[in-house]
Amino acid sequence: QVQLEESGGGLVQAGGSLRLSCAASGTIFSINDMGWYRRAPGKRHELVASITRAGRSNYADSAKGRFTITRDNAKNTVHLQMNSLKPEDTAVYYCRAPGPEYDYWGQGTQVTVSS
Fold first, then answer.
1. Is residue 92 predicted with pLDDT exceeding 80?
2. Contact 7, 93 (CB under 8 A)
């Protein structure tokens, strides 16, 4: 089992920045991909950014140029630096570790961007 715990959400004005963190614990040696997903009110979960253990990253078009995902394998953490935030970035952000035989999710952290 793997537990994921997010932190760093909050309320910020448009144009501001936030840094989300995800700490993984448990049987983490099997985890390759980790990512940040979000769910806005009335919408489905969507990928924001993901990163492999080797450091290859992938971004949603809406995140490119504004968000940066990083990973520290030694500390079992994944971070999402979000700059130039927009009201449409308002959502609950989840840390996720998807795999062929598992699918771990954190409980989520609220990000609210005011205009």
1. yes
2. no
| CB neighbour burial string for 10-39, b if at least 16 within 10 angstroms, e if fewer | eebeeeeebebbbebeeebeebeebbbbbe
Query: Residue-wise over 46-76: b if at least 16 C-beta within 10 A, else e?
Result: ebbbbbeeeeeeebeeebeeebbbebeeeeb
pLDDT, tens digit, 9 for 90 and up, residues 8-41: 999 999 999 999 999 999 877 678 999 999 999 9
Round to whole Å and give the CA distance between 57 and 50: 6
Position 6 scores a pLDDT of 96
- The pLDDT of 80-85, averaged and rounded, is 98
Q: How far apart are CA 31 and CA 53, in angstroms?
A: 8
Task: Return the SS3 of 57.
Answer: strand
